[in-house]
Amino acid sequence: MSVAQSWQQCRTAQFSVQWHASGTVITADGELDAANSDQLASYVQRNVSRTKRVILDLRGLEFIGTAGFSALHRINVACSFAQVHWAMAPSAAVWRLLRVCDPDGTLPVTDELDEPLLKAAGWAKGYQRPLLQLVPQAR
């Protein structure tokens, strides 16, 4: 059950937050690049003071540039400083960036199978896990 929700829209991206009794879900949709990655980091920093647990839902990001990765590191530092446990749920674009920029897996990652907060927020937004596509074996 969501206690409250707010959102912010900036160039090519939209950010929203849902406060739940067990934590906070911050969602980013659209494209994250040098023009708006600072806004995401600031948006998260403004909202971490209200909770001890944050899930950063990035499943709606279609693109993320290297400036977005820098924002994720700033979010990691801000959450650590505020003693907030956090994790992100990446989209395919975010996974590609993490494989290149964070090969050691230093940034925390989760998904809706492991995270009840994310599961509730995802179902509310209508997200569905992609179906597997069977490919016939070449002869």
Automatic annotation (TrEMBL):
Pfam families registered for this protein in UniProt: STAS
Record-annotated STAS domain positions: 13-72
Matching InterPro entries: STAS_dom (IPR002645), STAS_dom_sf (IPR036513)
Protein's UniProt name: Anti-anti-sigma regulatory factor (Antagonist of anti-sigma factor)
Species of the source: Mycobacterium numidiamassiliense
